[in-house]
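Holo prediction — NAI.
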Amino acid sequence: MKIAFYDTHKFERPFFEKLNNEFHHEIIFLEPRLIPGTASLAKGCDCVCAFVNDKLTGDVLKELYSYGIKLIALRSAGYNHIDLAVARELGLKVVRVPEYSPYAVAEHAVALILSLNRKIHKAYNRVREENFSLNGLVGFDLHMKKVGVVGTGKIGKVFAKIMSGFGCEVLLYDKMPDSYFASTIKARYVTFEQLLAFSDIISLHVPLKMETKYLINESTIDLMKDDVMIINTGRGKLIDTKALVKGLKKKKIGYAGLDVYEEEEGIFFEDMSESGIDDDCLARLLTFPNVLITSHQAFLTEEAIQNIAFTTLKNITEFETNTTLTNEV
Ligand code: NAI
């Protein structure tokens, strides 16, 4: 199949090129993101391969369909960035990579927790400037702390297991509780409100949907413990960023570790060091010493990229050969 591969990054291209020696597709690597103005680059292709910050709106899908695109292959687990109703209307098939490494994302959430708690980001800069003072670097033991896991799917479960290994008391919340899993790590399911009220650390692992948008907002922040740590490796819009900034300013929120941001499209994955950013909310977040932001990199391990490349190419081959689509959305 001829594939228009949008938003190509240096970190992934070699994995796709190498694996494609087995799959024999024709891949057109495109640097631009898929937005209304770039959809025409897919002319002459059969399939569009899109990443997390491509905009698969109804209008973009209609344009792609008019060029003869038959398949949208998402190289992500999340599919909140595609208008599925329009895709279905047009008869466009959509496939995704439901699981590539829950360990990559869960371990990154833990990296954010440890960096914030032990102030590794500050210590790293200090020592490089030959400042060996420890003032202001006091952290806290994770042992015995209460950790709230919002969403106990593949990633949430791995994360919960790791935190239980630290000797934390793990509180779980999911609309589909898995009590057997809870028993294996001696954790317990609680209501969302209880999780907010009791947790020292809250980590988000639910998908972004209508009902989870702004799950963390001014009123849910009010229910949290003072000095709480919030970790988001899920999706940016799970948090109302303005409310988060307010909570940080009031010192209600003690720490925030964010791998995703609600307005990340066009900023994350890009080098903005020359142009600067014009997003005031993100700029404000960057001024807090107790906020650590990474640029949607939680998935970025060799194992995960290898799995993303393999599953994406296999998904496309299944479509080409009229085989049942294992990962249809
Ligand atoms: P999953 O589908 O295995 O688990 C999601 C869990 O959330 C399920 O247990 C489900 O029952 C629960 N859930 C859904 N809606 C809910 C609601 N309204 N209230 C309570 N629970 C609800 O998904 P997985 O693989 O664990 O991934 C979770 C999310 O992580 C993805 O949707 C994606 O947005 C994000 N992600 C982020 C990455 C990154 O690089 N930062 C990489 C991969 C995924």
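READOUT: The CA atoms of residues 197 and 224 lie 5 Å apart.
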